[in-house]
Amino acid sequence: MRLAIQLLLWVVIIGLAYLTFNAVYEPIQFNKIKEKRYAKVVENLKDIRNAELAHKEIVGSFQDDFDKLVGFLDTAEFAITQRRDTTVLDEEYKKQYGVDEYIEKVIIDTLGFVPVKDSLFKGNKERYTNMINVPVDDVDAKFELDAGTITKGNSEIAVFRARVAKSVVLQGLDKDLILQQNQVQSVDDINGRYINVGSLEEVNTKGNWPTQYGDE
Fold it and tell me: Contact at 8 Å (CB) between 182 and 167?
């Protein structure tokens, strides 16, 4: 009887030790996987942002159709310009007052053009054609991409947003820990339910990730 009780106690002790170990070990492993996945997602969002900013610079608006954004990257070019200051004779002033008057002007010379895809992606077509895909193994999902305008005073200002739900990025991991991630509020983590760049509510092209993942 005494031996049976001792064996039972050992079983309980081992069980409690396992539960304690698992309670500590599982969140550690979760965080390691989470950070690796988040880092890959952030890199894609940075690429999408760079492509959108190039589209805005050249076309004047952001693009919410990814296929059209890729088509833009295939053909668009940045102008290489040079700014120079000069002075010229103000002909109207001389005509009116009979006195030479010089005014300063800024002249922008176009020196040439460089493909956007070379400037941003070093010509790597696979990189920019696949940047819309969430870069996590065994996760078949794409980033949400939206664009539009918001009103500021009397002006319509172009905005965009690319995002993906954390639950998609963390697919296959512990569901309780994923729920905790959706509720996290920390300067060292990504707050909220989504990992995103840009905004449809304000003029903002930053991402919502902390500095450990690089520039916002």
Answer: yes
